[in-house]
Write a structure and sequence with these properties.
By secondary structure, this protein is an alpha+beta fold. It has one domain: Double Stranded RNA Binding Domain. Helices cover 28% and strands 27% of the residues. Strands 1, 2, 3 and 4 form a four-stranded antiparallel β-sheet that branches.
Length: 92
């Protein structure tokens, strides 16, 4: 799946390239909740695992990857920390 221009994932890839860091790898994770499954994502950079803030319905796994990329950029000091809002499709 092609990423959207200016997505958090693209920004994270660019940041890693500019700072000569290992390219990020995403790992989607799931958790069975009653009759449904919630999905989230973890991005791995230089061996460090950074989790998305939220859990999503399966239709919104791409948003979980975006969330993880945004959190990673914040931790790397490359994006401002925003007050979290509950995203569309979230299980929280």
């Amino acid at each position: 799946m092609a990423s959207r221009p200016n997505s958090w994932q693209d920004k994270l890839r660019d940041h890693c390239l500019n700072f000569r860091l290992e390219q990020p790898r995403w790992q989607d994770v799931s958790d069975r909740r009653g009759g449904r499954t919630a999905w989230s994502s973890i991005v791995v950079i230089q061996g460090r695992q950074i989790a998305a803030r939220y859990w999503y319905d399966g239709r919104y796994v791409e948003q979980a990857r975006e969330d993880a990329a945004e959190v990673a950029l914040q931790m790397l000091g490359a994006a401002p920390v925003r007050s979290p809002t509950q995203p569309y499709g979230s299980f929280e």
